[in-house]
Every structure is written in structure tokens, then in C-alpha cells.
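Exam revision sheet. Question 4 asks you to relate a sequence to its structure. Input first:
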Amino acid sequence: MTGSLENLTVPEDEPSVAGDLLSLVLAQIRLTGDYVRSHEVERSGILDLEVGAAHVIVVAEGSLHVEGDGAERVIIDTGDLVLLSRGLGGARLVASASHASVIVCRFWFDPHALRGMVSALPGRIHIRRDEGAGWLEGIVPFLMVEVTDDEPGAALMISRIIDVIVIRTLRTWVRRGHTTGWLGGLSDARIARALKVMHERPSHPWGIKALADAAGMSRSSFSDRFTALVGRSPLRYQNEWRLTLARGMLVAREARVGEIALRVGYASEAAFSRAYKAMFGYPPRDEPAPPSGSGSREQDGGLRQGAERVEPTPTSAFARPS
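Answer key, C-alpha cells:
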């Protein structure tokens, strides 16, 4: 998504405001699936993951438990999924009972995505098998079919399927209603309506009263609720969203700085430049373009190092159908 205003409209006939906004925000964050591997972890063995990378892990057989991060012990059972948006930190994933067969998908967030939105993602999201019923058991075998496919385009398909798994995981998490940050705003129908108008019309000079009216709340209640769920005030969120869109346009070299400033609602290039530098640490004219050849998944096949083509254990819960 390039950030053009034509692409920012949420269809009015769409039944789920939160669903629309999740798609819109994730389109701005962007991620690239990197590889898929199967691992056998022996009893009490530790699942080795690359430090700093984001991962989706599906337990096909056995179970894992999280230990070492000071939190309550969490069991990730057969058929469960865990999404690690920033790696494990100081925690470890250890095979419980006997052993664990796991499928590991590695992915990376676009470095030009909004840093605040990425950092607002939960560090660990655990989706249990019953919560993922109807989508997880269907998509994992399809993913493993592509992993073993040598046909042209298989690497890009793997990357796209990882996209779908991550997005579907976040949708399931939002529906729980225990989220924070911008995901927390999506979980509240009234706050989601205010977020919707900000995302639909980023150049409009929204004030607290207009946003509260869109949410159907009083100004004080709206401001308190929005700040509690999203973690920043409505006007600060609006400003950060505008600057995020502007950054995408600058990276894509869509227009001159002054024109982009007007598109996202700034009255002057000078005001826009000051706000941009305050958020990103440098003026908009210094925004670098992506390195040649790495600006899209279509150019590089979507993968940094290629997908590991290893099937899961045939007896696993998500084994490729015979």
C-alpha cells in the first residue's frame, strides 16, 4: 500500500468497523514471511529461535511451555499457536512431557512501518486450538503443501500464507477484548468508530467534539476511554497516523513534500516538517528511499533466505493430508 488517499477509504457497507481498521493498519505495518521449518524438540529441550525476529509457532504434536520470563508458566498444547512479535526476550520455549513437533514461521516487519504500531503489538499472543478452530487446522496443511512445492512462485505463496496467519491471529486476539494500544481501540465499538473516521479522512481537522460525536460519547468520556485503550490521546494518535501515511508517500516518492503535507492535513510545509522531525528525528526531505531491489516482495520473491522445505511429522495434528 502506497498511502494514496484513494486507498484510505473504508467501505460504508462493510459490516465490521474493527475488521476494516485492522486491515488498514496492518497494510501500513506490512510484514514479510521469511521461512517455514519443522522442528522436533526432545523432552526438556529448548526450541531455538533467531533473536530479534518475529515468529509464529504451531505445535503439531506434544506441547511446549514458556519459562524464564518471570511470568506464570504457560502451556502451548497440541494444535495451539503462539505469535512472538519481538522474539522471546529472556524467555524460553521448552518441550513438556515427552517431546514436541512444531512448525516455525519466521517473519519481519517492514522497517518503514510505524514503529509505534509495531511496538504496541503484544509480545506474545497465544491462540488455543479451540479458538483457532475453523481456520488454523485448514491453513497449516495448505502452508506445508507449499513448503514441499518446487513449482515457480512457491516462495511467494509461503510469504503470503504467513501474512494470512499473522492477520488471522491478530483478528482472533482483538475479539477477546483484552488488547491494548491500537488493537485495544479496535476491540471497543465506540472507539473503533472514531478511529474509523480518522483513518478515512486523515486530512480533516478532527477535534475532540467531532470525534466524540462519531463515537456517540461525551467529550470527557471519549478522551478518557480512547487514551486508556489506545495508550495515547486522540489528537496525538491522529497526528501520528497522518505522519505515518506521509512517510509511506515519501518513501514511495509519490509527490513533493509540500503536496504530501497538504494531503495529510497540514496547513503548511513548515508545520509538517517540524512535526515530522519531532516524530522521526529527521526532516521529511531526508527520508531515504528503500534500497534498490528490496522495496517489495514481488522483486525479491518475498524471502530473505528462502523457505526450508521440511515436512512435519506425519502423525502430527497438522500433517499434510495423504
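Marking note for examiners. Residues 154-176 form the longest helix (23 residues).
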